[in-house]
């Protein structure tokens, strides 16, 4: 049985997905409705809460059970990430999917590694038409700035972690 996986982070990279999930089939590009980017070292999505960028850019994949097992290992499921179902709408608005995402089990904000962010940015731009690239950049940059600001003011949220001790 195939499932729909909605990638917004490292798994937006075509080559990485080919290595991890050779039988995955990319079925759409669009946005996770009502969710925006957030960084806690790695990517996450959270409810938009009135943010300017209300829908996180993402790639929809049709995956096999073997692909899902490989992704579970890569994402640290269930200790680092859990699975949640979301609504995904294609850029052209023709199709809407219900699929799962990996949702972080940790709260807080931590600035991500620039190479990691570049991989996400490059991955998304590899799927989206150039007309969406500014929106992708703005969505990612807003989340990075939020991480910087939260660390700078010493928000209590930057220190909260939920789950396993392996995430440092």
Keywords:
Hypothetical upf0131 protein ytfp; alpha+beta; 168 residues; 31% helix; 5-stranded antiparallel sheet
Task: Describe what this molecule looks like in 3D.
It is a single chain. The protein is of the alpha+beta class and 168 residues long. The chain has one domain: Hypothetical upf0131 protein ytfp (Roll). The protein has helices at residues 14-20, 65-75, 114-127, 133-152, and strands at residues 3-7, 25-32, 35-40, 42-47, 56-63, 81-90, 96-104. A five-stranded antiparallel β-sheet has the order 1-5-2-6-7. The protein has a two-stranded antiparallel ribbon with strand order 3-4. Helix 3 runs antiparallel to helix 4 (133-152). The model is unreliable at 161-168 (pLDDT under 50).
How is the secondary structure organized here?
Blueprint: E1 3-7, H1 14-20, E2 25-32, E3 35-40, E4 42-47, E5 56-63, H2 65-75, E6 81-90, E7 96-104, H3 114-127, H4 133-152
Antiparallel strand pairs: 1-5, 2-5, 2-6, 3-4, 6-7
Distance between the termini: 35 Å
Which geometry do the CA atoms define?
globular
Give the DSSP E fraction (strand runs of 2 or more residues).
25-35%
Structural class by SSE content? alpha+beta
Largest sheet: 5 strands, antiparallel
| Count of folded domains | 1
Can you count the beta strands? 7
SSE succession: EHEEEEHEEHH
What is the name of the CATH topology? Hypothetical upf0131 protein ytfp
CATH class: Alpha Beta
Radius of gyration: 15 Å
Proper CATH architecture: Roll
Q: Could you report the average pLDDT, rounded to the nearest whole number? A: 88
Number of helices: 4
Uncertain regions: pLDDT < 50 for 5+ in a row?
161-168
The CATH fourth-level homologous superfamily: Gamma-glutamyl cyclotransferase-like
